[in-house]
Write a structure and sequence with these properties.
Blueprint (H helix, E strand, L loop, with lengths): L12 H23 L19 E3 L5 E8 L1 E7 L4 E8 L6 E7 L6 E10 L25 E10 L3 E9 L29 E3 L5 E5 L21 E8 L6 E9 L8 E13 L2 E12 L2 E12 L4 E10 L4 E14 L2 E13 L7 E12 L5 E14 L2 E2 L3 E11 L1
Antiparallel strand pairs: 1-2, 2-5, 2-22, 3-4, 3-22, 5-6, 6-7, 7-8, 8-11, 9-10, 11-12, 12-13, 13-14, 14-15, 15-16, 16-17, 17-18, 18-19, 19-20, 20-21, 20-22
Length: about 400
Amino acid sequence: MPAFKTLPGADSPRARTVARLLATALLCMFAVTAQAQEEVEDDTPFSEPEDDWRVWKLFTGQPIIFYGQINPAVVQYDDGAVTRTYSPVGNSNKTSRLGFRWHIRQFGDWSPLVRVEVGLSARPSKTVNIEDPGSNSWSSREGDLRKLELVVYNDRFGAFSFGQGSMATDGITEVDYSGTRLAAFSNVGQIAASQLLRNRDGQLSQLQIGDFIDNFEGANVTGAYPDGSRKMRFRYDTPNFNGFVFSTAFGNEVLRDEGETNVDAALTYEGVFGEYKFAAGAGYSWQSETRVLSGSATVLHDPSGLSLTAALGGERDGGSFAYLKAGVQRSFWSVGSTFLSVDFYRGTNIESDGTLATSYGLAMVQAFDKPGLEAYALIRSYDIKQPGATFDNGLVTMIGASWQF
């Protein structure tokens, strides 16, 4: 998986597209706000809006609620012969980001919301390797505009979303109650995706771990969209019917070269059965010749804190994967809950016919009473097989901390 390119110049077609999107969003925000009354709902993270530094009020009287995540980490990778440490890096399992939500007062039964979210690129762990350790500086990369959308919700008719944002199958293979999502999830190659495989004779190959591992998150296959299935799209989500929500979207990739039109649909469910909490999702995505069917499910036993998560999926006439995770949640210390998990991944025919990738991981996340603060650690092995080649096993370790606000 090559490192991302820098954003094009201001006169490039993609730059002009992004500029038009931003201008359109701003016009929509001001047009909607101008009609709204100054009275707004209390939809802030804290009970008293005036005590929350994340809430700003504009001249219109409408609040803008800022949110974000800072997620630095230290990653060490052993390719079987050489061990390198990369510090600091951004944890690509859940990237740093900054955004805001602009809630507009209801118009009858309709609730509009404007959301803008950008990624904060600082040496993502998925882009570094022994030949290209990356730069410690913050920079702009393609795809850093994560969301730029207008969402309108109605209790009876559901939600309608317009603009840059998640397709229906975004995250469909990542339903997970383990609590260790920061350190380990179904796309086990994310934190080391660009690390080069070392041949058994000691020579470095130009093949990367990310070439052989994928979690088939919608049209997100083989690194083509390495940070989720988000596009310039129209999306519809039904109201919640006894835990079930059906979603569909139609969109086009506008932030990267060679973007294609994508259509997808997903069905998700979440419910409680006595002492058990259960969630699942399944989706189907089609893009040109690509057809992907994938999904995941997770269950948590509240009294014991034990959880089990599974995910699987594949591309028509292409590769497939299976993932299994067992987790436990405990309160060992007074500072907050502790989450532990072990997982297994198996991917077949992803890079090419006959290839096989297996990975085992052990993860820990420690939550703290301070809202949004978590520390985490991971150790993960990679075993890659390809016809006609023999590679040393890889081993990655990661420690880090995340602050969500």
